[in-house]
Amino acid sequence: MERLVAHAKARSAQAATDRSPKAVETRRRAIAQATASNRRAGYVHDPVLEAANERYIAGDITIDEHRAEMVARYTKGN
């Protein structure tokens, strides 16, 4: 099990550093789908979330880091 977790983390880190046009477009589509879902649920523009989305799309942060930033932001009440 530990090997599977380590492999998943390595893939996540590798995906974030992959700045190829294909990888960037894949991340852009994933964020677009998530944003569309959020809008249907009543999403209101959040500049901090949008900035994190752009960093994730660019490959600057992993999806796990993105998620951790958002959890930290909303659990602290910021």
What does this structure look like?
The protein has 78 residues and is mainly alpha-helical. It is built from 4 helices and no strands. It is globular.
How far from one another are the termini?
Answer: 36 Å
**Proportion of helical residues:** over 70%
Radius of gyration based on Cα positions: 14 Å
Number of distinct beta strands: 0
Q: Which parts are unreliable, with pLDDT below 50 for 5 consecutive residues or more? A: none
Strand pairing plus helix content: what structural class? Answer: mainly alpha
The backbone outline, from C-alpha atoms, is globular
Number of helical elements = 4
Which sheet architecture does the biggest sheet show? none
Q: Can you write the helix and strand succession as a string?
A: HHHH
The overall average pLDDT, rounded, is 86
- Portion of residues in beta strands equals under 5%
